[in-house]
């Protein structure tokens, strides 16, 4: 996940005071330069050794109090699964400076400020991965759970992206930000009250009844209810309420499987979702990711696997040319594929109340779409290998250009 090694000579980031010459307004908050998540995502997709990279960052911060270095070291730890160590490093970085400026695009005229919470990679919307090679100056500022947000403590910006993702641990912060951002002096993207509506069961209820879209019933279930069940006849998916990215997700078809699952998962509440068999004519499970922007759909990827739990990173898309051919056909023919569904997207967008959101879906044999997840806090990017995925470049560039035009229009309208 990151920049090529030839950029390593620039790693000496240091706390800096931005000057008025950089057109950042009358007041300029102190910022630290950071490579950010996109740096590590690019390295990962290029097949570089992130464990070795993380070790280098550990060695680097052993002899520096540079906030940007500590923050990048934290991101490196998160990327290799060392979340506790990463959180310790992130907390130290934010103590040194809560405000960071991403190195790419730092001189661009359009300034986007992302409000962040101190959490792991699933705690925020990683829009910087999509903006990675666009002319946008991205600031990322960490806000406290118990301290008010002051405009004068933040970098000057044209747009504010409320990047705190919905989760049980972050709802109190979202509620507080809801009031603080109500009269913010800059346009706010993804107002906190909209993000609060992205609980899994609430999303499922919001999207019920859309023609052509199957939204499996999702409900909140306390652990005590599951433990008291004397039998089990459902075919469903269970996941801890705080889970993201498939962590703790399991398919349960029997009482024995339920008992084994509860022995491994110690949470007090779970989401229970009806399982839908979405295998295609090839016998593979296929899961697509689509970005919605102002009611328009843009293809991001389409992964295929023998397993029902499909993640692009473990679906062997690099290893199986036949699967890439299926994805290529879908992406290149997206306009034709999209025709039967073109009325679904604005309805989803209107019900969710966000201008930008990502969807994970599958297409059933009868042509109906089944929704797995709707959330702005999923990742979209244009960093895949050109050698293996040349067909992704143009579709993802169209999404990038649409997002850039949207951001510029919102800034110009302010």
Mean pLDDT metric: 89
Uncertain stretches: 1-27
Radius of gyration: 22 Å
Question: What structural class do you assign from the helix and strand content?
Answer: alpha/beta
Domain tally: 3
Straight-line N-to-C gap: 34 Å
Q: With helices defined by DSSP (H or I, 4 residues minimum), what is the helix count?
A: 13
- The portion of residues forming beta strands comes to 15-25%
| Annotation, overall tally of beta strands | 16
* Overall shape: globular
Describe the fold and architecture.
The chain is an alpha/beta fold. The chain folds into 3 domains: 5-194, no CATH class; 217-274, ATP-grasp fold, A domain (Dna Ligase, domain 1, 2-Layer Sandwich); 285-375, D-amino Acid Aminotransferase, Chain A, domain 1, CATH 3.30.470. The chain has helices spanning 37-45, 50-61, 67-79, 83-96, 171-180, 192-195, 200-206, 223-228, 255-264, 321-332, 334-338, 344-352, 393-413, and strands spanning 15-16, 31-34, 99-102, 110-116, 136-142, 159-162, 188-189, 213-214, 218-222, 236-240, 250-252, 269-274, 285-293, 296-305, 356-363, 369-375. Strands 1-2-3-5-4-6-7 form a 7-stranded mixed beta sheet, with helices on one face. A 5-stranded mixed beta sheet has the order 8-16-15-13-14. Helix 2 (50-61) runs antiparallel to helix 3 (67-79) and helix 3 (67-79) runs antiparallel to helix 4.
Key words describing this protein structure:
D-amino Acid Aminotransferase, Chain A, domain 1, 5-stranded mixed beta sheet, Dna Ligase, domain 1, globular, 32% helix, disordered N terminus
């Amino acid at each position: 996940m990151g920049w090529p090694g030839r950029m390593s000579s620039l790693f000496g980031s240091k706390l800096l005071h931005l000057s008025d010459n950089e057109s950042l307004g009358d007041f300029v908050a102190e910022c630290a330069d950071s490579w950010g998540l996109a740096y590590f995502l690019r390295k990962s997709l290029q097949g570089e050794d992130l464990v070795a990279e993380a070790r280098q960052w550990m060695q680097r911060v052993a002899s520096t109090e540079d906030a940007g270095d500590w923050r990048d070291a934290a991101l490196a730890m998160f990327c290799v699964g060392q979340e506790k160590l990463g959180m310790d490093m992130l907390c130290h970085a934010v103590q040194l400076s809560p405000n960071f400026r991403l190195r790419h695009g730092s001189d661009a005229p359009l300034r986007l400020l992302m409000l962040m919470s101190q959490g792991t990679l699933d705690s925020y919307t990683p829009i910087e991965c999509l903006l990675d090679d666009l002319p946008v100056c991205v600031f990322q500022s960490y806000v406290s759970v118990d301290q008010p947000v002051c405009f004068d403590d933040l970098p000057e910006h044209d747009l504010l992206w409320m990047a705190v993702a919905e989760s049980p641990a972050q709802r109190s912060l979202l509620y507080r930000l809801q009031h603080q951002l109500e009269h913010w002096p800059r346009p706010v993207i993804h107002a906190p009250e909209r993000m609060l509506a992205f609980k899994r069961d609430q999303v499922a209820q919001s999207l019920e009844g859309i023609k052509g879209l199957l939204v499996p019933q999702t409900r909140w279930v306390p652990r005590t209810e599951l433990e008291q069940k004397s039998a089990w006849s459902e075919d469903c998916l269970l996941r801890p309420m705080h889970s993201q990215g498939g962590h703790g997700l399991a398919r349960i078809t029997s009482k024995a499987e339920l008992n084994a699952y509860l022995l491994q998962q110690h949470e007090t509440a779970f989401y229970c979702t009806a399982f839908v068999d979405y295998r295609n004519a090839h016998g593979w499970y296929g899961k697509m990711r689509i970005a919605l922007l102002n009611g328009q759909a843009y293809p991001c990827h389409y992964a295929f696997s023998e397993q029902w739990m499909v993640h692009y990173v473990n679906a062997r898309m690099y290893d199986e040319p036949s699967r890439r051919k299926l994805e290529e056909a879908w992406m290149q023919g997206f306009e034709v594929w999209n025709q039967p569904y073109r009325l679904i997207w604005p309805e989803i967008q209107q019900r969710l109340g966000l201008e930008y959101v990502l969807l994970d879906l599958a297409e059933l044999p009868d042509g109906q779409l089944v929704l797995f997840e709707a959330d702005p806090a999923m990742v979209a990017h244009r960093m895949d290998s050109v050698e293996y995925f040349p067909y992704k470049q143009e579709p993802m560039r169209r999404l990038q250009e649409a997002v850039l035009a949207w951001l510029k229009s919102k800034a110009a309208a302010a």
